[in-house]
Amino acid sequence: MIEVRELSKHYGDVTAVDGVTFKAESGQITGFLGPNGAGKTTTMRMLTCFLPPSSGTATVDGFDTAEASLEVRRRIGYLPELPPLYHDMTVESYLDFVAKIKGVPSSQLRTRLDETMEKTGITHVARTVIGQLSKGYKQRVGLAQALVHNPPVLILDEPTVGLDPKQIIEIRETIKSLRGDHTIILSTHILPEVSMTCDKIVIINNGRIVGEGSPESLTAQLREGEVLRAQVVGAKDAVEAMLAGIPGVVDVQREDAGPADAYLVTTAPGQNVRDPLAKAVVDGGFGLRELRSMDLSLEDVFLQLTNEDSAEA
Amino acid sequence: MRNFLAIYTKEMRSYFVSPVAYVIAGVFLFLTGYLFRNILMQFNYYCLQFSQRQQFMQGGMPNLNLNEMVVTQFFAIMDFIWLMVVPMLTMRLFSEEKKSGTIELLMTSPLSTTQILLGKFFAALSLYMTIVALTLVYCLILELYGDPDWGPIWSAYLGYLLLGCTFIGVGVLASSLTENQIVAVLLAFGTLLLLWLIDWSASFAGPTAAAILTYLSIIQHLQDFQRGVIDTGDVVFYLSLTFFTLFLTSRVLESRRWRR
């Protein structure tokens, strides 16, 4: 488990991270979402004891990063934004080196290497020199490096950056398979990534947390009521009046863009108006062509939150 | 110890996997071999001249000392070549880790700064001593054709071990200060050259300052070793300079952790 309290980092006059507080529960994947330069990397560097915080504290499995740095470093696997690879080493000798400095006992070394390489799908390139690997494989070796000592906590800084879509899916699957055994924090600026892999999302912008919660609760948080898009054939004014008359409907608007006969129906929170709506359309003798929920995507949430914040600033 | 060995082995591997170790050893041995040959030819020429002149002189051969005229001469030039080569051995030790981001791996692993530092230091020292040991071949050639005194030779090699520690200490410090290898080389080379020539200004300084400046000269202390004198003062000088540079390096590396 990771607990961060009022963590800040200043570089001279520049504030990179400003009083960040959050928790990452054991066995869960916590996504750290934010635009480039939001302070994600700096926060992760403070969690891994690479940088000291200017103020505030961070504890990893109960150990303070400033007070018990060595204990923290024993418990984390860290994949920095740029995988820390020695390009003149082979994959296997590199992982062997990392396993040794991470304190894997000699008796378990061989099994740990084989297991990690298998988990990250790099067994067949074990004897290849890292410098000759493609970007995707380098990223996997980077991930293997973070996993080799089987740490309880994994900190992954943009693990899918620069990969092609197929590689992204593979890396994501690998990360998802680690859920349960490890506490994972991953940072990204790609939205679908967090909604697909994470149990919890922390949205950060300009060094401050602007939103926190599960992907569902975050979308719900911004959604006042449900918006339905209904396509109804019939006289426009009559349809509009009919829709507005349905109990639970707050607002009806004709959709400007898109095909004719489409209406956006805003409902009061917690009201199901789909069935009454369908019935009213049929009873009124209109034709119902389409009825669907206009769910706010995480992307909308993200833009809304990060824009609100920059408007304040 | 295990951590130290892991770092040490990794550094040694990287010296020998890349052409660095071979090129440095090759260039160094070629240069010293060339110089040794010339010094030997010169000595040969003197011997010939003196033996011809001996017929006209009473009282036999003047004192032509093999150690003094060949070994010491050779060592004096080798010092200077090392001054240029050691910064190249040490330049990548930390600057490359910084540049490629692997320093992040080392600093977030459960390693102490001392383990990282000593692993790298002893790797560079091992490579240095391997090349130094190869120059023993020249002394063996003297043994084959002449009768050198081995005492001063061994003490000179002890001097080289200590000199190497100091040079590498300065080189490691320079490398920890920058992520640019060329900057690291120049910083180390400049510092060493300054410490080499510092006793020159002693001639123009007051008596106290002169004594200090002469004491600081890294080359003055080596001359005793080459004459066959092992002075504790000289040993202390080299070791304390080495510890000092390594201490500063560990501060530089750790400053990342306490600089808020």
Note down, in words, how this protein is organized.
- The complex is a heterodimer of chains A (313) and B (260).
- In chain A, 37% of the residues lie in helices and 28% in strands.
- With 313 residues, chain A is of the alpha/beta class.
- Chain A has a 6-stranded mixed beta sheet, with helices on both faces. In chain A, strands 2-1-4-5 form a 4-stranded antiparallel beta sheet, with helices on one face. In chain A, strands 12-13-11-14 form a 4-stranded antiparallel beta sheet, with helices on one face.
- The two termini of chain A are 32 Å apart.
- Chain B has 260 residues and is mostly helical.
- Chain B has one domain (2-254).
- Chain B contains 12 helices and no strands.
- Chain B has helices spanning 2-17, 20-53, 66-90, 92-100, 103-107, 113-134, 136-145, 150-177, 181-197, 207-216, 220-226, 232-258.
- The longest helix of chain B is centred in the first third of the chain and has 34 residues, at 20-53.
Give a short overview:
Chain A has 313 residues and is an alpha/beta fold.
Sequence-ordered SSE layout with sheet pairings:
The complex is a heterodimer of chains A (313) and B (260).
Chain A: E1 2-11, E2 14-24, E3 29-33, H1 40-47, E4 55-60, E5 63-64, H2 69-75, E6 76-79, H3 91-101, H4 106-119, H5 135-147, E7 153-157, H6 165-177, E8 183-188, H7 191-197, E9 200-205, E10 208-213, H8 215-222, E11 227-233, H9 236-244, E12 249-254, E13 262-267, H10 274-283, E14 287-293, H11 298-312
Parallel strand pairs in A: 3-8, 3-9, 6-7, 7-8
Antiparallel strand pairs in A: 1-2, 1-4, 4-5, 9-10, 11-13, 11-14, 12-13
Chain B: H1 2-17, H2 20-53, H3 66-90, H4 92-100, H5 103-107, H6 113-134, H7 136-145, H8 150-177, H9 181-197, H10 207-216, H11 220-226, H12 232-258
Helix pairs in contact in B: 1-6, 2-3, 3-8, 3-9, 4-8, 6-8, 8-9, 8-11, 8-12
